[in-house]
Amino acid sequence: MSRPLRGSFRHLITIEAAAKVDTESGREEKTWSTFAQVFAQRIQRNFSSERFQAGREVPKIQTLWRTNWRDDFTPDMRVKDAVGRVYNITETRDPDGDRRLIEIDSMEMTEGDSD
């Protein structure tokens, strides 16, 4: 795999981590907070229709993000892009084993998805 140009890391993304908090009514609720902000390359993978909403298929978008190596991003986290779209992380990996890059597979959340 060739080394990506720095200019290809042009998308500022926010990696968010979940935390459970107790509400005033005593229930646990999941909240998201910023874990890290990094510049990344965005690679659109494909579309799939995984669910129905209001009687029609709702497309899901699979996106690969590539950024400089970190060992602390996990599938329990999510990505938020600069315009506010949210993507659940499905997998992270070191594509060539040299700890230079991390690839983050993700699925865009659509209205009605639960976090």
Task: Give a brief description.
The protein contains no helices and 6 strands. With 115 residues, the chain is mainly beta. The radius of gyration is 16 Å and the shape is globular.
Keywords:
115 residues, mainly beta, Thrombin, subunit H, 6-stranded antiparallel β-barrel
Written overview of the protein:
This protein is mostly beta strands and 115 residues long. It has one domain (8-21, 28-108): Bacteriophage SPP1 head-tail adaptor protein (Thrombin, subunit H, Beta Barrel). The chain contains no helices and 6 strands. It has strands at residues 11-22, 28-53, 56-68, 78-80, 86-93, 101-108. The protein has a 6-stranded antiparallel beta barrel with strand order 1-2-3-6-5-4. A hairpin with a 2-residue loop joins strand 2 (28-53) and strand 3 (56-68).
Average pLDDT number = 85
User: Treating each run of at least 4 consecutive H or I residues as one helix, how many helices?
Assistant: 0
| CATH topology group | Thrombin, subunit H
Uncertain segments: none
Adjacency order of strands in the biggest sheet: 1-2-3-6-5-4
Give the DSSP E fraction (strand runs of 2 or more residues).
over 45%
From the alpha-carbon coordinates, what is the Rg to the nearest angstrom? 16 Å
- For this structure, what is the CATH class? Mainly Beta
Q: So, the CATH homologous superfamily?
A: Bacteriophage SPP1 head-tail adaptor protein
What order do the helices and strands follow? EEEEEE
CATH architecture: Beta Barrel
The share of residues in helices is under 10%
**DSSP strand tally:** 6
- Counting helices, strands and paired strands, the structural category is mainly beta
What is the CA–CA distance across the termini? 34 Å
The shape, in one word, is globular
- Structural domain tally: 1
The major beta sheet can be summarized as: 6 strands, antiparallel, barrel
